[in-house]
Amino acid sequence: MIDQPSPPPIVITARALPPLAGEAVQDVVVLGRPALERAPSQALEDIVRAVPGVQLFRRSGARSANPTTQGISARGLGGNAASRMVVLLDGVPQGDPFGGWLVWPSLDAAGLAEVRVTRGGGNVTVGPGALAGAIELDSDRTPGLRAALDGGLHGAGEARLAAVHGGTSLAAWGGTDAGFIPVVAEDRGVADRRSPFAYGGTRLGLRAGAFSAAAALFADRRERGLPGTANASRGADLSLRWRRANRGSVTLFHQERRFESAFASASADRSSVSPTLSQFVPAKATGWNAEWQPLATLRLGTDGRVARGASEEEASFVAGRPTRDRVAEGRQATAGLYGDLTLPVGSVTLSGALRVDRWWLRGLSLEERNRSTGALLLSEQAPDREGTVPSGRVGARLPLGRALTLRGAAYLGWRLPTLNELVRPFRVGRDAVAANAALKPERLRGIEAGAEWKRGPWSASATLFANRLRNPIINVTRGTGPGTFPGVGFVAGTYRRRENVAALDTKGVEAALGWSRGDWRASGTLSMVSAHVRDSGPLDGLRPAQVPRLTATAEIGWRELGLQLRHVGAQNEDDLGTLRLPAATTLDASASWPLRDGLALRVRGENLTNARVLAARSADGIDERATPRRLWLGLTLRR
C-alpha cells in the first residue's frame, strides 16, 4: 500500500478580506507558521529582517536597543526612528503615534498565522506611509493550543502561549533577560554594566457571527548599559470589526502608548555617569478602515488615523539636577480613499490601484521653562498645515509556460513626518539633533521588474528595482561643538538638524533560490542596493546612514533542524560617512525533537560564533555591539 501525502493543514487567519490577485505584481514574501516556529530567534524583528532588503534602523534588536531606534525600512531607503514600512496587525497600524517607531516586544509571533512582507510602494490598502513596503501580521484563528517555554544564557527565559477555542482566542508572551554589556570590552569603563530586559503582553480575541473584537496589553523595560539609562514602554489596543465574508468589512481601533526614557552621558574614561535627560511620551491614536468588494477583482475602501502625542522632558541637567522643563507636542491626521482593481486578460493579470489622502498637522509647539521659577525660556508655535497627496500602482503579471512568470510594477508613495521629527529635539551622549516643524512629506516614485521560476524541487526569484525618494528626512550635520546651537542649546559634540534634502536614489536587486526534497531543504537570499543622496550641500553623492550595500542569507535544514548564515555589509553610522560600521556575519541554528503527545524538545542558538556585530560607533571612538552568542533550551507543546 502506498502512503498518500497528508493534505496541508487548514490555517484560519483574522484577515478581513483575502489578498487580491493583483498584489502579486510586486515582490511578496509570506512566512507561515512553519517558518515562524523554526526561526532561531523568536523575536519578531529578527524574523522579518531575514527577508532580503528589509532592515531595522540599527543592527541591534529590541532586547538592548532603545525603541526609538527600531524603525523598519527596505530597499536602501533608510530612515531614522520613524519607519518607512507600514506594519499592521490584523489591519491595524502598529507604528507609535508620536514617533513612528515599532515596539517589537508588543508584537509576538506566537499567535500569528503568517507574516506577509511586500517590498515596494503603491500598496494602497495598507494606508499611507508604506514607502518601502508593508508587513502584514495576521493572527491565527485555527483551533488548538500552542505553548513554549525556553531558558537561555545571561539569565534569560521566555514563555509563549496561543490558544483558540470556538470564537475565543488568547495569546500571551513574556520574558526576562539579564542582558549583556553593549560597549565592547576594550572601550569599557567601570560605569559600563549589563543591559537587563523584561517584557510581557497578552492579546484576547472574541468572535460572534460577523462581529469580532480584540484587546491587547503590553509592557517592556530595559537599560542601555549605564546607570540612569532605563527606558520602558506600555500600551493598550482595542479594535472592533464587522465582516461580511468576501464582500466587505469595517474596522475601528484605538491605541494608547506610554514611553519613558532616561538618558545619561559617561565621562571620558567611562568611570562616572551624568544624567542628561528624562523623557515621558504619552500618545494615542484612533482610526478606522472600511472596505467593500463588489467584485472578486475590485476593492474599494477608506481609512484614516488621528494621532496626538507629547514629549514631556526634564532637561539641561546641572550638578545632577534638571534646570528646564520642555514640552513638545502636536496632532496629526490622515484620511484616504482607495481602489484596487485586478483585470485578468487571457493569461495576463493586470493591476491598477489608486489612493488619495488628505493630511493635517495641528498644534505643533515646543516650550521650555525654567524649572525653579517657571519662567518661559522658549516658545515656538508652528502654523497649522494640510494637504492632499495621490499615490498608487500599476503592474502586470505574465506566466510563460509552467515554470516561469514575469512581473512588473510602477508605483507612487508618500509619508507624513512624525510628530517626533517635527517638534522634538533630542540628545545622544555629547551630540544633539534639532527638530524641524517645517518638514515636508516624503514622496516616492519607483519601478520594479521581476521573474519567478519553479521546477520540481527548485525555485528561484529575482527583482530589479529603482526608487527616487523626494524630500527624504535626514539628520543633517550643521556644526560641531562645544558651542550653542538653535533648537538645542549647548552642544559638546556634533550638532545636527532634521531636514528635507532634495532626493535619495536607490536601485538594486533582490534574489532568492530554494530547494526542497523530502525532509531536506536549502535556500539562499541576496540583496544588493546602490543608494545615494542627491542635494546641493555636502551630502550630495554620499551613501545614507545605516544602509548596507549587501545583505545575504543561506539556510540548510533537515526536518526540524536548521542552520542559518546571515551576512550584513558595511554601512555608514553618520550622514557624512566619517564613521563606518564594518561588515558582520552570524550563524544561527535551531533544532526540535518530538517527545510524546505533541511535546517536543527545542534547542536554539543565535550568533553561535559570537561574531562582533557593531551596532553603533560614536565620534569619540566608543563602539557598541549587537547581540552576542545566545543559547536556548526549551519545550514546545502543540495540541
Automatic annotation (TrEMBL):
Residue ranges annotated for the TonB-dependent receptor-like beta-barrel domain, each copy included: 209-608
Subcellular location: Cell outer membrane
A Pfam family recorded for this sequence: TonB_dep_Rec_b-barrel
Membrane topology listed for this record: Multi-pass membrane protein
InterPro entries given in the database record: Beta-barrel_TonB, Beta-barrel_TonB_sf, Plug_dom, Plug_dom_sf, TonB-dep_rcpt-like
The keyword Nucleus appears for this protein: no
Keywords: Cell outer membrane, Ion transport, Membrane, Receptor, Signal, TonB box, Transmembrane, Transmembrane beta strand, Transport
Annotated ranges, domain TonB-dependent receptor plug: 24-134
Gene3D superfamilies reported in the protein's UniProt record: TonB-dependent receptor, beta-barrel domain, TonB-dependent receptor, plug domain
Domain of life (superkingdom): Bacteria
Stated family: Belongs to the TonB-dependent receptor family.
Record protein name field: TonB-dependent receptor
